[in-house]
Amino acid sequence: MIHPRSLIATLACVFLSSFAWAIDPVFISEFLTSNDAGLVDEDGEHADWMEIYNSGTTTVNLAGWRLTDDSSDLGKWVFPAVDLAPKGFLLVFASNKDRANPGAPLHTNFKLSQDGGYLALVKSDGSIAHEYNPYPAQYTDKPFGLSQTVTTQSFVGPSAALKYLVPTTAVPDDATWTARLFNDATWTAGSNGVGFESTVSGFALKTYFSNQGVGSLAQAEAVIVTPSLQTSVQSVNHPVVNFDNSASPGHYTPENNPPALSSGDKDNYVVEATGTITVPTAGPWTFCVSSDDGCSLQIRPIGGSYTAVLSFPGLRGIGDTLGTYNFPVAGDYEIRAIVFENGGGSGGEVSARSGSTTVWDSTFKLIGNTAGGGLSVKSLAVGSGGAGYGPYIGANVKAAMFDA
Prior knowledge:
By secondary structure, this protein is mainly β. Helices cover 3% and strands 38% of the residues. It folds into three domains: 4-145, Lamin Tail domain (Immunoglobulin-like); 159-196 and 389-404, no CATH class; 199-388, Jelly Rolls (Sandwich). The longest helix is centred in the middle third of the chain and has 9 residues, at 217-225.
């Protein structure tokens, strides 16, 4: 099986004095002796592995070549007839499963020692192409091998100027468009990349778990933007903000916990919910965040600057914080809500109602629960950890292509 790193164009090797020089163009470029969370083989197991590299300019057939972990037995495991292309990598699992079928994953009849040892690649004539003699004790999930220097030639940059056409018929308007001297003057100018993305219903919801207490709104914001304060981040599109992680129910039942908070009592985390709400009428609307502990809520016109609508910056049991935003016109606006938890019970809700008031009542509806009368909310699809493709789209063709 060819390793994905076969795209590497140039290799420079740095050798330690205790290793034999890799005179042959084919050598062991990297290996791992303790695989706990890395590559898995075709059986779904985390086997040891090694990587064979051909630094030459011609294809090498490895039939009869050998791998060994024993300097007294240079023919321990024999390669089948496998071609290794120039500048190509070949992955071999050191699993003790002894599989040597061309076209299938390769497995040696030995494993590698994490405590250090011997490893060699031997040519079909019995001469040593490359050896580690010895290699030192190894760390779990830390590959060891020869350093590599990569030379990259970029032909089309991430923001390169381009021309594009959205066809109006089943075939391009001009069948000669692939010609080298084609005149694209009538095509639309833009920049790389070309595409679009649509939204899904619900909030884009991220849960940031902190490695220390989250005792204030300022600390919550710091956790969101500081990876060193995070132990993990879980992202999901979720219909509403209405969760009760532990003994802090709010106004709305049943609770709708995001996956990150669906089981067990959690402390020291921040929930950030973002999306685009659609406001049916202009004028004042009051927003309510019920939280344990603190919270905040901001709103802005599409692409504009956020306005702080409400906040509770400290710690408390479940409670309501309200604020009013005056919408100049009906339509779409971006919303950002935060609920953070330090310790003890935790929960959060985000709701709204038309008009201005200072106390929650039953006329408030959960944002996202349109069936129950709440404002609609949509967001970019975030999957398991992304934030949408928008930053990578230079020429947005959604208007011309979506649902066309």
